[in-house]
Amino acid sequence: MLIKSPGKTFYAFWFLIILIIETLIAIFLEDELIRPYGGDLLVVILIYCFIRAITSFSILKSLIIVFLFSFAVEFFQLINIVKVLQYQLPEIVLIVIGSSFSPWDLLAYSLGILLTGALEYYRLGYSENSTSTITGK
């Protein structure tokens, strides 16, 4: 039995919910655990939901794109891309790139991707045909 993936509205809804949560965390929390690492874990889920809401990519392809994007952003922090480019980037780009590299951020991104993959896997219900929905084949 092939279980149909939810529509783009499902992902758009969760994108908005997580965006609100991320905004509340940024505004009201000044701790050393939830804001930096919980926020990083949630941001990959946020980006995943955004991609699924606006594209027809498979679950697996979307997870890989988010994983690569999040690691690329962290790598740009490691090499201090702003100084390398010697160019004043727009403020929104500086916010996305962030300011400092941390291997703990990579762990948070990885856990977020794994959590998202697990949620999708269990939400679809495991069956012999469910992998075709995950991979898009």
Distance between the termini: 15 Å
Poorly predicted spans: none
Query: What is the share of helical residues?
Result: over 70%
Please give the largest β-sheet: none
The best one-word shape is globular
Q: What is the average of the pLDDT values?
A: 85
Give the helix/strand class: mainly alpha
SSE order: HHHHHHH
Q: How many helix segments? A: 7
Strand percentage lies at: under 5%
Please count the beta strands (DSSP E, at least 2 residues each).
0
Instruction: Tally the structural domains.
Output: 1
| Rg measurement, Å | 16 Å
Overview in brief:
The protein starts with 7 loop residues before the first helix and ends with a helix. It has one domain (8-135).
Describe this structure as you would to a colleague.
The chain crosses the membrane at residues 12-29, 41-59, 65-85, 92-115. This protein has 7 helices and no strands. It has 137 residues and is mostly helical. It has one domain. α1 runs antiparallel to α2, α2 (34-54) crosses α3 and α3 (59-78) packs antiparallel against α6 (103-124). The mean pLDDT is 85.
